[in-house]
Amino acid sequence: PRSALDGEYGDEAIASAVRRELREDAQTTELGGIEVRVSGGVVSLRGVVPLLEDAESAEEVASRVPGVVEVRELLDVEQYER
After folding, report:
1. 52-63 vs 11-24: helix crossing angle, rounded to 10
2. Nearest to 65 by CA among 39, 42, 47
3. Which sign, positive or negative, has the C-alpha torsion 56, 49, 35, 28?
4. Of these four, 29, 41, 54, 74, which has the most CB atoms within 10 Å of its CB?
5. What is the C-alpha separation between 66 and 31, in angstroms, rounded?
6. One digit per residue, pLDDT tens: the chain, 82 residues?
7. How many angstroms from the chain centroid is the CA of residue 77?
8. How far apart are the C-alpha atoms of 42 and 71, rounded to whole Å?
9. Distance of CA 55 to CAs 1, 2, 19, 74, 81, Å?
């Protein structure tokens, strides 16, 4: 929900929305264990994903959540695609 004071989305609401989208999106639903932190609308994604494509998908999904200003994809990739 938006803040009654300034009409902006709060960090906790953004984090919850990002987690929900990651769970519900077909590209990222299998990627459990991604830690989502938000500060000032900037989302940081941390954790380990199997492939580089998974990290890119998580970043894309997070970036489309309302209120997100920037996404910092800090995920470790187990295996790079060749």
Report:
1. 130
2. 42
3. positive
4. 54
5. 21
6. 555 555 668 899 999 999 999 999 999 999 988 999 999 999 999 999 999 999 999 999 999 999 999 999 999 999 765 5
7. 16
8. 6
9. 27, 28, 14, 9, 12
**In which residue are the tokens 């009409």 written?**
7
Q: How many CA atoms lie within 13 A of 28 on its CB side?
A: 22
Q: What is the pLDDT of residue 79?
A: 78
Q: Do 61 and 31 meet the contact criterion of CB atoms below 8 Å apart?
A: no
Pick left, alpha or beta for residue 44 (phi over 0 → left; psi -120 to 50 → alpha; otherwise beta). beta
